Amino acid sequence: MFTPRDQLLANHDEFRRLAQEHTQYAQRLDSLTQKRYLSEDEKLEEVRLKKLKLRLKDQMESIERQFRQQTQHQVA
Fold this sequence. Notes:
Elements: H1 4-11, H2 13-33, H3 40-75
C-alpha cells in the first residue's frame, strides 16, 4: 500500500516539484557541509538553503495534511 507521500509524489505536480527542489537544496547543503572551511558567501548560502528547505518542507507538509483530510472524508 502506498503512503500519502507516495501518492502525492505520483499524482500531485506541485508536491512533486517541491520535493525535487527540496532534494536539490539538500544535495547542495551536503556539498557545503563536506567542506572543511566555508567562505563568507558559502556561509550565507548555507543559511539561505536551510531556510528554503524548511519553507519547502512546510509547504509539502501542508499539502500532505490537506490530502489526508480529503481522503479521510472520502472514507467516512
